[in-house]
Design goal:
Blueprint lengths: L7 H9 L4 H22 L2 H20 L9 H22 L24 H18 L3 H12 L4 H8 L3 H21 L8
Helix pairs in contact: 1-2, 2-3, 2-4, 3-4, 4-7, 6-8, 7-8
Length: 196
């Protein structure tokens, strides 16, 4: 059986029992979801990569020290670790009184993506994605978190409820209000989710 077909639990078990290559398979299996979650919160590629690495260093150490109990929620556990590292980073940044550039819009045309030949559809998709992210940023924090966990990380509402320490009904309600608020923002600002 290929390692990519193994469950998270089986890969963790192999790693804990000394098979180092299993952790690489596990990281590769979930890296897109976890990195996307981190990036959507910190909005800085270099910082997201650093936090991603710190997250998996902590995951590896926790696994080696037997501090993970499998309940079929490996990704939720990793996201919680990442979330805590992000909070620690922003607390430290605030404490050091550093200035953050997160409030500035991205300069889309100063990106290496546009230095290569791209088809028009990729540009349109990038613009729509950017517009949607700006809409999400306008939401209250609890609604923003549910949207990110559901649509970018792919967690179920049950996993979101566990991750955010609320009931499933509360998680569903936050999603509903997030979508209502996004529609209101689109209507109030006459936003079109396409390239003008």
């Amino acid at each position: 059986m290929s390692k990519t077909n193994l469950s998270d639990f089986e890969l963790i078990e192999q790693f804990v029992n000394g098979k180092q290559s299993s952790i690489e398979v596990l990281i590769n299996k979930h890296k897109n979801r976890i990195y996307t979650y981190i990036f959507l919160i910190v909005k800085n590629e270099q910082l997201a990569e650093d936090i991603f690495q710190d997250t998996f260093i902590k995951v590896i150490n926790s696994l080696k020290n037997g501090r993970y109990q499998d309940k079929g929620r490996f990704v939720s556990w990793v996201i919680r670790i990442a979330h805590n590292i992000i909070i620690d980073h922003f607390r430290k940044e605030k404490h050091l009184n550093t200035i953050s550039n997160d409030n500035n819009d991205y300069d889309l045309f100063n990106s290496s993506k546009f230095s290569d030949k791209n088809i028009e559809q990729e540009i349109i998709n990038d613009q729509i994605t950017n517009d949607v992210r700006k809409l999400i940023d306008k939401l209250p924090e609890d609604q923003k978190q549910v949207i990110i966990l559901r649509h970018y990380v792919g967690l179920s509402f049950k996993e979101i409820a566990e991750q955010t320490d609320v009931s499933i009904n509360t998680a569903l309600g936050r999603m509903r209000y997030a979508l209502i608020n996004m529609r209101k923002i689109i209507e109030e600002h006459n936003i079109s989710l396409s390239v003008q």
